[in-house]
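Reading a protein record of the kind used here takes only a little practice. The record below shows the convention in full:
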Amino acid sequence: MKKLLIVDDSKVSRMVIRAHVKAVQPDWEFLEAANGEQAIAMVEEHRPDFCTMDINMPGMLGTDAAEQILQSHPEIRIAIFSANVQDTMQSRASSIGSIFVAKPVTEKSIAIVLHHFAG
């Protein structure tokens, strides 16, 4: 069974991502974290296959958390969601080996993410 870690400081965003992914992948296990530090701890404990990561969260930026996760676990596929669509954020996501997806989360953006995860 595949595991997806959803990282976002907004509970509503986590619920929306979970609902969209669950509609397509009902058998997946879902884990949640509200910030980068929790995400890193969850990865160490649960070893998810995939991760969606918000950028702007209290404490550590999602891109920094994603980079740390990928240094230890390069096999994890990460998609970065953010309302911050600046080129610098998009190129940072690419530079650490993840994809950047603009919020809001939609069926279409989830389809892009799931394609990346399958890639």
Summary: The longest strand covers residues 77-82. The domain at 3-118 is CATH 3.40.50.2300 (Rossmann fold).
